[in-house]
Amino acid sequence: MNPAAIRNAGLKELAFIVKSSLYHNQKARKLKEFAEFIFREYGGDFNLMSREDFKVLRKKLLGVWGVGPETADSILLYALGKPVFVVDAYTKRIFTRLGKLSGGEDYGQVRKIFEDSLPKEVLLYQHYHGLIVEHAKKYCLKNNPRCGECVLEKKCEKNLV
Question: Do 13 and 69 share a domain, yes or no?
Answer without folding.
Answer: yes
